[in-house]
Amino acid sequence: MHCTDLEVELNKVLALRSLNNGEFISSERRKFVVDSEYVDTRCSFQTLQEIMLTEVNRDRALGDASKCMFRMKHMRDSLSGTAAKVFQREGLMDEGDSIAISGNGWYPKDSYLGWHTNRCTPGLRVYCNWAAESGKSGLYYHYEGHDLDRRVMLDEQGWNYRVFSTSSKLPFWHAVFSHTDRVSVGFRISKEKPEDV
Ligand SMILES: [Fe+2]
What we know:
About 25% of the residues lie in helices and about 30% in strands. The chain has five helices and eight strands. The protein is globular and about 40 Å long.
């Protein structure tokens, strides 16, 4: 994806993590876990299997996470607007489609977002992830009923772009791990009215 315009906006989000604590949503900060092993355990295939046995629909990871969320209301409109132009140019969305920021976060070294499906908010998702180092962070995923194991997409150093869709028909289980400094900004593209989550 050719994203120079978008990267200018994304780099402003990246800069937020070096600001003071007030720039983060405090409830998320309290869940900080600085423990490499705990991150790997929460993102393991065994943990996924346990969750699938006990929770029929884990739409969101909620408390099973240790990332920080940015306070970025002031930059949402320009970020979404720029992303919409780039995604239309790339053929990822039509002019009438809606776009919403569907997740943002700073993953300090040894942090994670636990297994979930996002199946209640179906649509195409574009994730822009920045990593300080190659091969030390990424996404584990598993298509319920289709995969026999967990698969992984590792981040390269710098910005990485990923496109996938979530739906209730083919639950896309995923978990994020980071053993390096990592930032994530997600967009959801759909035919429905936009709603930021
Ligand atoms: Fe997700």
